[in-house]
């Protein structure tokens, strides 16, 4: 005889499906090609009996859930490829500091701990001049402009109960100060103004915004953002790899905390460090 707990879980989960669908027993039974009396007996009868395998399969197929979930053997409803997509998916990037999808993730995680390892100098700090230099093509396309994307992110950060932590390489700030690589054509005057903007924003938002700088010689991380307990998005350059499982989220949180522990510049030191960099701008 099946364990009675399995039957209780089965009843509970089918009743969840019925409530979610808004269907009556009769309507759901018709969709599943079952007798109404059979479904009613399974859900309200006094005997702790599980349905036959074919009945389970018909209910699962109608509701688009897995049989394992119906029986309480899995906490995930999805079946087949949908299960993979529920755990991992790829989302387009859009070549701006934040697209509508990314902003939606931020919005849904407001009030939760958001941790991010950006690519170099955080976009959140960048002035219009620097954004136009780095995202030149995005200004020529329709849609969300880089300036608007940054403004929306700052507006979210100004809402109460926000928590945003950034950890990035100290070397990226040094390269910006010295006009190395990508920044070689950005005039020194604009780079100094950019650093002053960083100081102003960091002072305005601290401690809701906390910035950690680690040394690239001793630590490395791919760019990623953890949105509370909801998801982690790993930046792939042309898209985001989005992971939703609790195990993946915890893995990236642990990595972020490792970077925090080894950071040579802590949040309360950030503004002072950037002030020193202004003198190094060449």
Mean pLDDT: 86
What is the H/E string?
HHHHHHEHEHHHEHHEEEEHH
How much of the sequence lies in strands comes to: 5-15%
Main pleated sheet: 7 strands, mixed
Q: How many H/I helical runs?
A: 14
* CATH fold topology of the largest domain: Endonuclease, Chain A
Tally the beta strands. 7
Level of helix content? Answer: 40-55%
Straight-line N-to-C gap: 80 Å
Fold blueprint:
Elements lengths: L3 H18 L3 H7 L4 H9 L8 H11 L3 H4 L9 H8 E5 L7 H9 L4 E5 L10 H7 L1 H5 L5 H12 L5 E7 H9 L9 H18 L3 E6 L9 E4 L3 E5 L3 E5 L2 H17 L7 H9 L4
Parallel strand pairs: 2-3, 3-4
Antiparallel strand pairs: 1-7, 2-5, 5-6, 6-7
Q: Care to describe what's here?
A:
The protein is α/β, with parallel strands linked by helices. The chain has two domains: 4-77, 434 Repressor (Amino-terminal Domain) (Orthogonal Bundle); 87-278, Endonuclease, Chain A. It has helices spanning 4-21, 25-31, 36-44, 53-63, 67-70, 80-87, 100-108, 128-134, 136-140, 146-157, 170-178, 188-205, 246-262, 270-278, and strands spanning 88-92, 113-117, 163-169, 209-214, 224-227, 231-235, 239-243. The chain has a seven-stranded mixed β-sheet, sandwiched between helices. Helix 12 (188-205) runs antiparallel to helix 14. Mean pLDDT is 86; it is low at 1-5 and 80-84.
């Amino acid at each position: 005889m099946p364990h009675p707990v399995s039957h209780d879980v089965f009843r509970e989960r089918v009743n969840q499906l019925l409530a979610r669908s808004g269907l009556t027993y009769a309507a759901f039974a018709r969709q599943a090609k079952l007798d109404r009396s059979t479904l009613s007996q399974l859900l309200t009868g006094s005997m702790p009996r599980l349905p036959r395998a074919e009945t389970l399969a018909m209910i699962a197929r109608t509701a688009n859930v897995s049989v394992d979930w119906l029986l309480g053997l899995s906490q995930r409803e999805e079946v087949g490829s949908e299960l993979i997509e529920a755990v991992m998916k790829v989302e387009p990037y859009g070549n701006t500091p934040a697209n509508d999808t990314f902003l939606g993730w931020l919005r849904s995680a407001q009030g939760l701990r958001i941790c991010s390892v950006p690519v170099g100098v955080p976009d959140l700090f960048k002035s219009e001049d620097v954004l136009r230099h780095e995202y030149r093509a995005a200004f020529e396309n329709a849609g969300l402009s880089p300036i608007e994307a940054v403004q929306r992110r700052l507006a979210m950060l100004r809402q109460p109960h926000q928590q945003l932590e950034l950890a990035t390489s100290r070397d990226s700030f040094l390269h910006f100060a010295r006009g190395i690589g990508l920044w070689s054509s950005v005039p020194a005057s604009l780079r100094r103004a950019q650093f002053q903007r960083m100081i102003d924003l960091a002072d305005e938002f601290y401690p809701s915004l906390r910035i950690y700088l680690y040394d690239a010689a001793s630590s490395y991380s791919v760019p990623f953002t953890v949105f509370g307990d909801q998801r982690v998005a790993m930046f792939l350059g042309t898209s985001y790899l989005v992971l939703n499982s609790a195990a993946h989220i915890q893995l990236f949180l642990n990595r972020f905390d490792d970077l925090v522990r080894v950071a040579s510049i802590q949040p309360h030191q950030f503004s002072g460090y950037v002030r020193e960099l202004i003198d190094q701008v060449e």
